[in-house]
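Subject: for your reference before the review

Hello V.,

The reviewers asked for a structural picture of the protein, and I figured it would be easier to keep everything in one thread rather than splitting it across files. Below is the amino acid sequence we used in the manuscript, unchanged from the supplementary table.
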Amino acid sequence: MTVVFHKMTGSGNDFVVLDGRTTDRGHWTPERIAQICDRRDGVGGDGLVIVTPIGPDHVRMTYFNSDGSRADMCGNAALCTTRLAARLEMADPSGMTLSTDAGTFRSRCVGDGHQAEINLPDVDIPVEAGIPLVAGERALTLGAVGVPHLVAVVDDVTEVDIDNRGRELRYHLGAGRNGANANFVSRTSRSTGTGGGETSDRSISSATGDGETSLEDADWAIRTYERGVEGETLACGTGTVAAALAVAASGADSLPLRFRSGSGRILAVSATITDGRATDIWLCGEGRLVARGVWLD
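And here is what came back from the structure prediction:
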């Protein structure tokens, strides 16, 4: 069997994306997903996405981790899905409805390059995780943005032992029955630390440009150990949202916030926080088509 695929990247978080009009989800067993996502014997990716039109300007994103497990949501995959749905003329690039296992929300392409924005459902603010801190960690919170996320505020993300500490937190009992992604964040030299959790006059639309924003324009740096991948990924969209909400709710900085991902590209988050709840959440970042080809299964 041959499978036409699109290889896409969202700030280094990469995916094999399939057109749901030409493939059957039932054919994609965990073993087959792991094969196509394999970086040596397959196409290579952090996950598999199937995008399917289900109505006027309405598409369905079905997402699987690279180990074949189903995941409710992936922010960077949603940005890639938005861009590809527009490219394949499944939906209007200026605005579409995107359905996932985590809910249905709005998304749109931004500019003529590779950027997209998604409007995520309202969520509760991450709360203290109750997990003991280790050297270099300042705070550790747990919340759900599509999937569960631990957010550790640290002195310097470059000094974190992601493989060991990330794995420890991902499987910690305090992360819940199925575990959580572990996100580590630290300030950059740009971070103002103005606090308050309120939205400032910094614009999310100018936060990412075409993905080539200077690294000095990032307020915070982030690294993620992602469950289902079971290792560090170069970016995590929903993890970045969870981190932004945790930072803003603590009073350490004000929204919108720009995060430098592990790939060096910028993800931006805006939201309104009121009484422990975040509303009008927007994630802006890259959804770049890298290649199109045929996988010989």
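For the response letter, the relevant points are probably these. The CA atoms of residues 190 and 219 lie 5 Å apart. Residues 196-203, 205-216 have pLDDT under 50 and may be disordered.

Happy to draft the paragraph if you're swamped.

O.
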